[in-house]
Amino acid sequence: MRHLMRIFLMGGTLVCLWGCGSGGGSTQPPGTVTDIWSGFCTATFTVDYAIIDTFDDPLFTARAGETYLVNDFRRFGLEYRASLLYLTQSSPITFDVTASDETSFPFETNCASDSVSSLLGVFTDSIFYRDEALTDPICELSEGSIAEGLLNIRLVSGFGFGAGSAPAVYKVTLGEFSNDCDGAEDGYVQVRAVNRFGASYFEAPIARVLRPRTTP
Prior knowledge:
- It is a single chain.
- Helices cover 0% and strands 49% of the residues.
- It contains no helices and 19 strands.
- A 5-stranded antiparallel sheet has the order 8-7-6-3-9, with no helix packed on it. The chain has a 3-stranded antiparallel sheet with strand order 13-10-19, with no helix packed on it. The chain has a 3-stranded antiparallel sheet with strand order 14-15-16, with no helix packed on it.
- β4 (49-52) and β5 (58-62) form a beta hairpin.
- It is globular.
């Protein structure tokens, strides 16, 4: 499940919208793959491609030659969809690219959808807590950490009209990260806004990533 919240300032009034689904100084294009994720599944655009969001609003244009991290490949009826990650200095922003078949995406990828391993990845140093009130820390997971496991993310506080840029709190399944988190199956984490594309996004610091599966 993915949670997304965007905050707009319209006529002096703060309006909040949300949808649910599942580095400084760098010269590389913003949002693209960094060295820490270079060994995972990526998508390199072969043409300039306009990205639109959940609300059918334009976000940005992915330029030919830019490479983004792959979050997921899936199929809905006759439509194929790739979820990609726009990387920030904190949590990533997920965006989708659709195609009529797997060979017509506007990018090239180093992965086949049926030959990948699905893992949990941490995108910013984050402290996880045993309780929703964030009083009992159980672990700190570092950027680039990887583990196996199912991913379930649930909003527990922080969204709503008038919420402004106040942090949100998510409950996140930890998968095999539980080995580093005092055996806890779930952890609570505070999420602050990421400001991009004229809006504020709240995304969890853990997301699914794909890695090419190697033959034993």
